[in-house]
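To whoever picks this up:

The nightly regression suite flagged Cupin as changed. Nothing in the input moved, so I suspect the structure step. Input below, exactly as stored in the fixture:
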Amino acid sequence: MKTKGKHAPEPEKGKPDKEKLLKGKYNTRTWNHFTGEDDRLYCGIWESTPGKVKVDYSEWEFCHFIEGKAILTNEEGKSWTLKKGDAFIIPAGFKGTWETVKKVKKHYVILLPKPAA
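Regenerated output under the current build:
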């Protein structure tokens, strides 16, 4: 873990691949506070600017919104509107879209699948 004094780690800035970006800019910042379980478990804070992207989860993720609003839509077209205070799990295998409507900041816990033996 990279830290600066007693402060949070430096944020990792990100942008989606062009083929995944559907709308907006969708710039992200991630502050990973913990890595464990043989580099399969990640915990921290993530934020994004407004935009819409295609998502395809191979990992399991728990999210808790600190601020903002987003719409998560699965391949079948079912949508969930998420906002400050909401907590939810995105299961491995989920495919669809993530649309940040109002700048999102969330806690996350990600568990990657075990490597094939």
